[in-house]
Amino acid sequence: MPVGVQSETKPGILLSGLLSGLLMGFSGVIFTLSLGSLVFSGDLTAFLPYGIGMALASTAIMMVAVALLSSVPGVIGATQDSSSVILAVIAAGLAANLSTVHVEERLATVLVAIATTTLLTGIFLLALGLFKLGGLVRYIPYPVVGGFLAGTGWLLAKGSFGVMSNVSLKLANLPELFSPEQLITWVPGVIFALVLFFGLRRFRHFLVMPGILVGGAMLFYLSLLVTGTTFHRATELGLLLGVVSGDAIWRPPIMENLLAVNWSAILGQSGNIAITIILSMVGLLLNVSALELVIRKDVNLNRELQSAGIANILSGFGGGMVGYHVLSFSALSYRMGARGRLPGLISGAICAAMLFNGSALLTYFPKPVLGGLLLFLGLDFLSDWVIAGWKKLSRIDYAVVLLILVVIGTTDFLIGVGVGLVVMIILFVLNYSRINVIYHAVSGKEMSSNVKRCTYHRRVLTEELGLHIYILELQGFIFFGTANAILEQIYARLADKQQPQARYILLDFRRVTGLDSSAGLSFSKCQQLAEAQNIILVLTHLSDNIQRQLSQSHLSEKHKNVRIFVDLDHGLEWCEEQLLEIEQITTYHTPITLSAQLADSGFEKARIVRLKEFLEQVKFKEGDYLLHQGDDADMLYFIEMGTVSVYLEMGGNARVRLQTYGLGTAVGEMDLYQRVKCPASIVADSPVTAYRLTRTALSEMKTKEPELAATFHEFFAQLLSERLATTIRTLTAVAR
User: Fold this and answer.
1) Strand pairing report for 562-565 and 688-694
2) Segment 332-370, tens digit of pLDDT
3) Cα(669)–Cα(435) distance, integer angstroms
4) Which of 369, 384, 418 is the last residue of a domain?
5) In this structure, are residues 120 and 322 in contact, taking their beta carbons and an 8 Å threshold?
6) Residue 361 region, left (φ>0) first, then alpha (ψ -120 to 50), else beta?
7) Distances from the Cα of 633 to the Cα of 53, 639, 662, 672, 674, angstroms
8) Interatomic CA distance for residues 718 and 720, integer angstroms
9) Do the Cβ atoms of 438 and 487 come closer than 8 Å?
10) What are phi and psi of 47, to 5 degrees?
11) How would you class 230 by CB atoms within 10 Å of its CB: exposed for 0-12, middle for 13-18, buried for 19 or more?
């Protein structure tokens, strides 16, 4: 007994499984007959027995295979309406192109084309599942899917008239359709479709659809009885399927003479075959996603792709049609309490029994019921996307749905989908180009590096020199629609006479996901503009791919005015150092001693002398640790010469630089005051001369020199307030 079925033999579970299987089986037969009639309608009506056999065989295979292979017990698979519409287009196209060839060649070509499409669909779905690509459905624009399904609804509705009356729904055929002998063939089907459509919207019980189907068939035969119409006469009028030969009902491709197949004609339908494959993927994943909401549990999309892929491969080898998980059947099975694999096996067995032993019964199926069922499916699709779509879609998306529907209705599926995709791509480009590719545009006055400098240097950079640095933090994917905005922003900054001339233009790529060749050209123009105005172009946070693309556009450090740094912090630090070095030569004087630094911060000379009594001068070589991460934070350092950096130790030899402190700065004061462990390490970047203040010395200062300690605390309060002001200034600038 198959895995998972043995546990369903308990009386209560078995009963619900049997009832669900019987209901799904007979409902599946009716749906399958309607789809087979759809594919083999019009010029192919003479081959309808083969279409019915093909549809029943594929549904039987789908139901059994999906029941056994799905990750969710209780899921029902069957031949699908949307894919059957395109199979009907393929079959009609082949029939029209091969109208002059021998009947056997025409039939063999149609059967093999459908089986080949099913086989390729199975291989594609299986490959997606094996390579775990179930998320691909997220990349298909929703309006394109909606337009495609609306077009499917139109073709289902249109095809239903061909099933009911053997006259296609065309403007030129309207006089014939409204003739008395044709009205009797399709009017009952239209009435049945409308009853089914509005009945299912009014009543949600799971027995409504089966009840209407059975009631429709009974009402049909009651009308024959009342009017005195015999079965023979009903068949002549086109109200019944007619005689179906049991010997010819199912012919797998392996039984066909493949040499009789016109492969060039099949190749001519490759576009529609590709659409069938893609639509099947989308339909399956959408059905499975919706099923998750019904059963309220996650479903393994990739496992379902594999199960549907195997089912379609088996169906293809058996000469069947495309199919996969049926949302309505699966949801109905769950509502009936049948949540095992037994319903799928039973329903598949019913379809197989009908295929091999039910030819006589098929003769008496009312065509108005089959055609009405197709018309109902078409109306359902059109209602969801044309009527309800007005409320659930934006006006642009809704217009795309209507456009695809009109194009499909007037041309074919391939052109409709192509037009829809082109329109969505254009809309995407237009919408994406409106997104500001510049995340922040600030100056070096408003944003500084993580290098903590003395009060004097901070004042120089924030009040004057920082304005010579222009920072652009970029974001998103930069392409032809957005790249020019960067160049225009730089032009605007350079043309602004109210600001000092920019000496450094810093472009940060941390938030950039990628760029195309046109963007590379725009950055190359930036370099040429900067070079013409004696400006240094600084590029930071370049990924390997972006740096390679820029190099291909001849933008690299080979140009004397281009510099590249690992991140924004290091790039900004370099710009600041360059400005300080240039200006120190001509204008500014940098204080060096600690006494000068403290005096510049407001310390009186006498208090500086007394403060030094509590400090210890220490020296470190490059690479020495002033404090280790995790040590007791019981000291701070005044940096008199050299620089130190604060690193977050990541384990092993990995570490991340948090900040750098230069001469005239203090480091470790926060940890000293908070009495915590050192959250990071402090390392000398170069030979360092510093003054150390321990917690013990600070306590001694408060005891012996309370006024000096108060002045010292005031000094640090001022220092911290300046740092806070710098942070607020940066946040204000980037929040604009």
Assistant:
1) unpaired
2) 677 666 778 888 899 999 999 888 876 667 777 788 887
3) 43
4) 418
5) no
6) alpha
7) 84, 17, 20, 5, 9
8) 6
9) no
10) -100, 20
11) exposed
- Report if residue 626 sits inside a domain: yes
Spatial CB neighbours of 572, under 8 Å, sequence gap ≥ 6: 444, 447, 448, 449, 469, 471, 506
On the question of pLDDT at 322 being above 90, the answer is yes
Residues 373 and 442 in one domain: no
Q: Does 573 share its domain with 548?
A: yes
Ranges of beta strands (E only) in 479-612 are 504-515, 536-540, 562-565
The pTM for the full model equals 0.62
551 and 458 in a common domain: yes
Question: Could you tell me the two tokens for 682?
Answer: 């402090």
| Backbone dihedral angles phi then psi of residue 683, each to the nearest 5 degrees | -125, 140
The more confident residue out of 190 and 725 is 190
Q: Which CATH number covers residue 627?
A: 2.60.120.10
Question: Which DSSP helix (H) or strand (E) runs through 228?
Answer: none
454 lies in the same domain as 392 = no
Q: Which of 542, 563, 586 is the last residue of a domain?
A: 586
Q: Which of 567, 146, 556 is nearest to 392 (CA)?
A: 146
Q: Tokens for 296?
A: 């309220």
For residues 493 and 634, state if they share a domain: no
One-letter amino acid of 316:
G
CB 378 within 8 A of CB 50: no
Domain carrying residue 366: 7-418
Q: Domains in the chain: how many in total? A: 3
Alpha-carbon span 729 to 735, nearest angstrom: 10
Give yes or no for residue 595 having a pLDDT over 60: yes
H-helix or E-strand spanning residue 205: none
Task: Provide the 3-class DSSP secondary structure of residue 288.
Answer: helix
Which residues make Cβ contacts (< 8 Å) with residue 155, sequence separation at least 6? Answer: 85, 88, 89, 378, 408, 409
Report yes or no on 423 lying in a domain: no
208 pLDDT band, cuts 50/70/90, is confident
More confident residue, 675 or 655: 655
461 in the same domain as 411: no
pLDDT at position 408, please? 86
Question: Computed from CA positions of residues 8, 11, 16, 19, in that sequence, does the dihedral angle turn out positive or negative?
Answer: positive
Q: Are strands 562-565 and 536-540 parallel, antiparallel or unpaired?
A: parallel
Q: What is the CATH number of the domain that holds 460?
A: 3.30.750.24
Q: Tell me if 2 is assigned to some domain.
A: no
Interacting residues of 391 by C-beta distance below 8 A, sequence separation 6+: none
Is 429 among the domain residues?
no
Q: Specify which of 105-109, 247-251, 373-377 reaches the highest per-range mean pLDDT.
A: 105-109
Identify the CA nearest to 565 among candidates 577, 553, 552, 581. Answer: 577
Q: Does 479 lie in the same domain as 334?
A: no
Q: Is the pLDDT at 49 greater than 50, yes or no?
A: yes
Q: How many residues does the chain have?
A: 736
Q: CA–CA separation, 440 vs 428, rounded Å?
A: 23
3-class DSSP assignment, residue 393: coil
What is the per-residue pLDDT for 1?
41
Shared-domain flag, residues 241 and 149: yes
DSSP per-residue letters across 125-136: HHHHHHTT-GGG
Which percentage of the chain shows pLDDT scores above 90? 27
Give the CB-side neighbour count of residue 329, counting CA atoms within 13 A: 33
Location of structure tokens 């204008």: 587
| CB of 157 closer than 8 Å to CB of 332 | no
Quote the Cα angle for 542-543-544, to 5°.
115
Distance separating alpha carbons of residues 284 and 696, to the nearest angstrom? 73
Question: pLDDT tens digits, residue range 324-338?
Answer: 998 777 766 776 667
